[in-house]
Amino acid sequence: MKYDLEERAAKFGEEVIKFCKKIKRDQITNPLISQFIRSSTSIGANYMEANQASSKKDFQNKIRICQKEANESKHWSRMISVANEDQKNKCRELWTQGSRTNTNIRRYLQKRKRQEKNRTSLKIKTLKFI
Q1: What structural domains and CATH numbers belong to the chain?
Q2: What is the pLDDT of residue 99?
Q3: What per-residue confidence (pLDDT) applies to 122?
Q4: What does the pLDDT look like over 68-114, one tens digit per residue?
Q5: DSSP H helical ranges for the chain
Q6: Half-sphere exposure of 119 (CA within 13 A, CB side)
Q7: d(CA 76, CA 72)
Q8: 99-102 — which CB contacts under 8 Å span 24+ positions?
Q9: CB 80 within 8 A of CB 32
């Protein structure tokens, strides 16, 4: 089965939204919840934008934003677990998903970089034979 990063990012955002609906809202948790939802849902949105990028540079920029948002999501998950200790296990689970998402995005970038390098190498070899 092919790993669909776009779908996984969307599911991660959905899970965070569902989780945040269950958290007791107060002066401390309100800003944490807002930031957590923003960063976690931004991963998928930026990934979709990256796939529609107008240039390689634009693509790389959007993908790096995805990585940053995944890292930020890990941070907010940790802060929510401190503010709402009864949700610590679910926060840990979401932190792990954010970490995996970041790892998968990094691997995706590395794979694309290798493919680009191979294409460039192939072009150079082809030119030598002409």
Answers
A1: 5-129 (1.20.1440.60)
A2: 92
A3: 59
A4: 999 999 999 999 999 999 999 999 999 999 999 989 888 888 888 88
A5: 5-22, 29-51, 56-83, 88-129
A6: 6
A7: 6
A8: 99/70, 99/74, 101/8, 101/9, 101/12, 101/43, 101/70, 101/73, 102/67, 102/70, 102/71, 102/74
A9: yes
